[in-house]
Hints:
alpha/beta; SDR_fam; Epidermal retinol dehydrogenase 2 isoform X9; NAD(P)-bd_dom_sf
Amino acid sequence: MPSRHAGVSQNMAPDLNSTKDLFVFLGKSVFSVLEDMVFTLIPKPQKNVAGEIVLITGAGSGLGRLLALKFASLGSVLVLWDINKEGTEETCEMAQAAGATRVYAYTCDCSQREEVYRVADQTYKAFLPAMIANDHGHLVCISSSAGLTGVNGLADYCASKFAAFGFAEAVFAETVAQKHMGIKTTIVCPLLINTGMFEGCTTKFPSLLPVLEPEYAVRKIVDAILQEKVYLYIPRVLYFLVFLKSILSSKIATLLCEYLGIFNVMDGFVGKKKKD
Length: 276
């Protein structure tokens, strides 16, 4: 006759495992909360990127150029990509003047897969195998606040930024699930940046939702990378607004958007001014 005790023991095993998993989860959660509290008061140590290869797309102007100059000052090896050959070469000269000892500039249209592979054999798709093999690397996605919520007059832009955010977050989830802890991810969602792309756009409450100066945005982005933050929303009020979006009814969220003038951000848009 089969023993009842054997059946009881088998049934208890999953329960014990579930209890163990719960306590491990609670313990790690408490530790993470305490860690976050400490680093809120004390700046998190920054990693050293001297000698690290930093590939920057869109390096020919704007935010890409400023990021290149910042990493040049940190001693990184720069690989600069842009569709604008003249702009990329100019950034290359500026980076060398800023202290970079090794800078490589390439003309590349990142929207064309053949171009990407022709230039370096690499973008997100092909970087990952090498990163996984070495368990070392840092993926940075520049999304936007328009990748967090829909904006009137920006349907196409929002679609691309939502896609970028979702893709980067999914890749982050894959690296965590596969225990590739040496591969870091930073997803950046800034509000409007004064690079000329959104010339004429304004916000109703600039003290709360300011148009960001590029130098400030770059400083925050680089700090987030060096501190290995996964998410960076700038300005910080975006964290709170995203939280409100997740808990408020759609009617109240719409009223809030109307009050903050979010539906009218694009009203004064004139587009990026062309050089003579």
